[in-house]
Design a protein that fits this description.
This protein is an all-alpha fold. The chain has 13 helices and no strands. The chain has helices at 2-34, 39-65, 69-103, 115-135, 141-162, 188-219, 224-236, 238-249, 253-267, 270-278, 285-308, 313-317, 320-332. Helix 3 runs parallel beside helix 11 (285-308).
Length: 333
């Protein structure tokens, strides 16, 4: 009965988190439209931040309100698991879908992107994540705090670049506001109410997940860190994946990829800064491996653009070998 209870608690936390994320993302996309913000910024900033809030709320609850080392592990795992999942699994899946959609006659077999924007996103991620990786080998608390401040400033500068006027925009449609589906243009109060309710769902779902992760880890003699490196991101990255999959099908490649790469920039800077501020940033070898693999995967993505000018789906999809290899390694050990 205890096992069933913890499993049920975990499933409820995932449902509540994803439900809150759906409400919040839908609301801020409409807020972006009402404020006249470009669709590119909505994809890489608004949608990316909205869909990464589950991963961010988990470490906030675990690190700053947790009372045990296991909860700290949950928080660090949530911070590091998201960039690993996005770079080694989500991007390769996007490449695979491009090929499958092309073979089904739904679209062409190549990405149609502004690779300058993609290069910007991946470069910002690499800078931030390499700083985080370097701090794992440095025990100075002062350096950690300076690095955290630098990462926050880095993301602010990234947002400034994204909100700068662009000469090219891509038109697109938004789903109706969930709380006001009959309105052609929902009101600001209704958008704000839905956003706040979604944010409340994210916080509640994160709290339930931390409780379930710690309890299940103890029950099955599993490291909470490993649990949150693989299971938490798989659940909380569903919004990014579902949005991007649909955008690819609709031939909106810029939005599909910006949602993922924008989330990577966010995950490689702000949540990492929380970890640097709230923990000693002592990374276990298994978690450190995910950081190295994420850097390698993104490095290959950058190399493709720098050398060939574009992504080749079959080569981008090969990045999944990093994720598969790591999962097999954990299972074997």
């Amino acid at each position: 009965m205890t096992t069933l209870y913890y499993i049920l608690l975990f499933l409820v936390s995932v449902v509540v988190t994803l439900g809150g994320c759906a409400l919040f993302t839908n609301a801020i996309e409409w807020l972006g439209k009402r404020l006249g913000i470009s669709e590119g910024a909505v994809g890489s900033i608004f949608a990316a931040i909205g869909t990464t809030l589950p991963e961010t709320s988990i470490p906030i609850i675990a690190i700053f309100f947790g009372e045990s080392p296991e909860e700290i592990d949950v928080g660090v795992g949530a911070i590091l698991g998201a960039p690993f999942m996005l770079s080694t699994l989500v991007l390769p899946i996007l490449a695979l879908l491009v090929v499958l959609y092309a073979r089904a006659g739904k679209r062409t077999g190549q990405f149609h992107l502004n690779y300058r924007d993609v290069l910007t996103d991946l470069t910002f991620f690499m800078i931030g994540y390499l700083v985080a990786l370097g701090c794992a080998f440095e025990r100075s608390r002062l350096i950690h705090l300076i690095a955290a401040g630098g990462l926050i400033c880095l993301y602010i500068y990234y947002m400034k670049l994204k909100f700068a006027p662009a000469g090219e925009s891509e038109s697109g449609e938004l789903d109706p506001l969930i709380f006001d589906k009959t309105a052609t243009t929902p009101s600001h109060p209704m958008i704000g109410f839905q956003a706040l309710l979604g944010l409340g769902g994210l916080i509640l779902g994160a709290h339930l997940f931390v409780m379930a992760a710690e309890s299940m880890a103890g029950l099955f003699s599993m490291s909470p860190l490993i649990l949150t490196l693989l299971i938490a991101p798989l659940a909380t990255e569903l919004p990014e994946m579902s949005n991007s999959f649909l955008w690819l099908y609709r031939k909106k490649d810029k939005l599909a990829v910006a949602n993922v790469t924008g989330a990577m920039v966010f995950q490689g800077t702000l949540p990492v800064s929380l970890g640097l501020i709230g923990t000693e940033w002592v990374i276990a070898p298994s978690a450190l491996t995910t950081m190295v693999l994420a850097v390698q995967a993104v490095g290959l993505c950058l190399l493709q653009i720098l050398l060939g000018g574009r992504w080749r789906p079959w080569l981008l999809g090969a990045g999944a070998l990093f994720y598969i290899g790591y999962t097999v390694y954990l299972y074997a050990n």
